Amino acid sequence: MPTDGRRKTIFLVEDNRGDIRLIQEALKSTAVDCEVAIARDGVEAMTYLRREGDFAEATLPDLILLDLNLPRKDGREVLADIKADPNLRHIPVVVLTTSRNEEDIFNSYDLHVNCYISKSRNLKQLFQIVRGIEEFWLETVALPYTDP
Description:
It comes from Leptolyngbya iicbica LK. Pfam families: Response_reg (PF00072). By secondary structure, the chain is of the alpha/beta class. It has a single domain (8-138), classed as Response regulator (Rossmann fold, 3-Layer(aba) Sandwich). The protein contains 5 helices and 5 strands; from the N terminus they run E-H-E-H-E-H-E-H-E-H. The protein has helices spanning 17-28, 42-49, 75-84, 102-110, 123-140, and strands spanning 8-13, 34-39, 63-66, 93-97, 115-118. It has a 5-stranded parallel β-sheet, sandwiched between helices. Strand 3 (63-66), helix 3 and strand 4 (93-97) form a beta-alpha-beta unit. Helix 1 (17-28) crosses helix 5. The radius of gyration is 14 Å and the shape is globular.
């Protein structure tokens, strides 16, 4: 359980249904009590984060897991928008993507991503990666409280 006792929210921005399912399963297998909110494209992600329309009552996440290759609005654009917004930039963003492209890695850090991780296609390794992310970002580090 997180040290402040609050239930944490992870915002997963991912378009691949299989990856969504696997990441959700990996998150369920840990001791951290967290809610997982999901957006399947970049436009929906920004609508959620800005609490617009159907997401007016959404809880700001404690952590964002962001894929780069998204429909409608690319993950790189989403990252740039998050880090440019004074209401969102403090939320840690972990790029979790299949891309191992050096330019993607460099550009993500240039846009102030907190961490860049390439997804493994090996199920066991993917579970270890997701558990490691959750353990570090939700149990170890001190995060700013995002929602009053």
